[in-house]
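Input.
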Amino acid sequence: QVQLHESGPDLVNASQTLSLTCTVSGGSSATAYYYWSWSRRPPGKGLEWIGAISWDGSTYYNPSLESRTSISRDTFKSQFSLQLTSVTPEDTAVYYCGSCLHTDCRADGYDYRGQGTQVTVSS
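Output.
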């Protein structure tokens, strides 16, 4: 059973960088060609796709966030990470890591997704 777990600070000051890590356990050959993604849900709003990294290390970003976003991976640690720079209070959200066969899992659903972690940006 594949499980994902988000970790990182729950409070970030405005103008600083938000850094989150997703640890993957129980991976198998079945997920060899999956995409590993980050999404977020701001208070009172819908789920927003942030970006994804593929099995070959290619990255894909939401154009509205691309200039501030970086997704990377550490295959030895079975982790992938999100960095969002120059954050503002509008970046306050529950952040999720997830995985499926598409860069954006929202349409067809996540095969695997973490429980989410609340990140608050203080002004």
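The chain has a mean pLDDT of 95.
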